[in-house]
Input
Amino acid sequence: MATIVATAPAPRIQQTRKVGIWTPAYTLWLREIVRFYRQKARVVGVIASPILFWFVLGSGFAHSFHTGSEGSNQYLGYFFPGAVVMIVLFTAIFSMMSLIQDRNEGFLLSVMAAPVSRSSIVLGKVLGGATLAAIQGIVFLVFTPLIGVHPNLEAIGVSIAAIIMISFELTALGFAIAWPMDSPQAFHAIVNLILLPLWMLSGAIFPASGASGWLRTLMRINPLTYGTDALRNALFPAQQTDFPLTTNLTVTIAFCALTFAASWAIVNHRTNKPSA
Output
């Protein structure tokens, strides 16, 4: 009789299935929101510093170049959009510093080792930082009555849209800068060299029309100038601004796409390099 030999089934090889882009991106986005609002000192600092800067610097410049309270109020009104952009800039900087912290603590390494798309890392971190920056900037709009501005619904809608786009472009730019960095000190050095001059030459402190020739050229090629001017278009529709609203929004949208594409390219370039 033939002997029947029972054989054990071959072990099944469990394949790791790669998840989509949206679930990891949402998880990283939510982590940024929760971590920010658990740090109370960070929330107070981000809001209080630009308010103090807006009032002190705005009043100082106003009394330096004008006489009387009317000139002071006019300059505080002019400086108001720049203060909003400053809030967005500070929040974006602090949010992208967490990228370096995540790398040093090993969290970023575990995310990169997981079966998730590298694009989800960019999307989650950028959207998280941009959401925080936009919220802080939008909240600052409650101070518009102090400068005698009472915007209607259309102006509020355009202002919010401009703040969201500025938040996204600055956060994506900060991500592209922070990703190759190994220390917060190096990131701060680049911030002082690039991001702060970018804000100063955006028309936040003085208009491009009143600047000297070479400085006016730098301000016109600065993409942040158009976002700041778009916010000023919305809040002060009766005043003459440097550029039309359509031009400001078009350039701002284009810069949003450019900075996000740069962030995506940097992440994929560094993670796809063959190991030595």
Observations:
- Confidence is low (pLDDT under 50) at residues 271-276.
- DSSP finds ten helices and no strands in the chain.
